[in-house]
Give the backbone structure.
Amino acid sequence: MLMPGGVEKPEGPLLALKDVSRAFGVRRGWLGEQRRLIAVDRVSLDVSAGESLGLVGESGCGKSTLGRLACGLLAPSSGQVLLEGRALPLAGARSWAAGRIQMVFQDPFSSLNPRMSARAAVAEPLAAQGVPRAEQRRRAEEMLATVGLDGLGGRYPHEFSGGQRQRIAVARALITRPEVVICDEPVSALDASVQAQVLNLLRDAQERFGPAYLFISHDLAVVGFMCRRILVMYLGQIVEEAAREQLFAGAAHPYSQALLASMPTGALRKEGELLPPPLEGELPSPLNPPPGCRFHPRCPKAVGICRREPPAWKELAPGWRARCHLA
Ligand code: SF4
């Protein structure tokens, strides 16, 4: 297949992270020693055209940093982020990748400029691409109508409800017809009743415009609703990758099992089978990750080797693998 410009479309995933790490320097106080916090530690993942890949984990596990790496808002400390096999440049520059990966953030109020009308906010990515003004306005109005805000383009963020503001953020993300949208906790700031509307909007938008989603959430129920393939992240690392059905029917990693057990819907528990108790204890600091398996201080199944050796990936079935000595 040929891409615009007559270039041959490369085989393989649309978006790929290969062994990507991201570290930050952290200093305690003015004179404190500078320490290295590894927020994302050697993560590899693939997103295919049109799919929804879920990324679930507790707050502070590095998933938002991973989202920013995947759309070029952050540069990796090591490893590669590839879009159709080419290294992704940092966002903001006018490059071959501009507009091809977009992001929807958790808090639509802080991601929208209060002094910019909904129409101008939605049109902004087109302005950055040098699209003529009349065309920007036409396409922004059209996209606002698509997300259910027909005729409201002249209003400002404070005149909308939280759900409506997130609709504006979705319209803004879709305006360039991106191939990938990184959705970072897109409904966690919304009331439960509005969450379903925004999730349905995202699903409809995917059917209509066809972008792939990397869908990031702390809520396994939300990720399960949106995605057929799910990655579970703990303290900067992916610890399980599975199809939704595999994960919900019999998660292999004790951390994934604990996430399932914390879900409010007991319906996901298999009849006659007790899942382990919901997760206890705090996520350890990424400044000082535990040795061996990072989950061992909280794992109800930990044995001696878990405290000494980091577990390698174990393949359990096609597309299903877990990083646990006992999987
Ligand atoms: Fe628990 Fe050990 Fe598996 Fe880690 S490797 S999840 S500590 S059983």
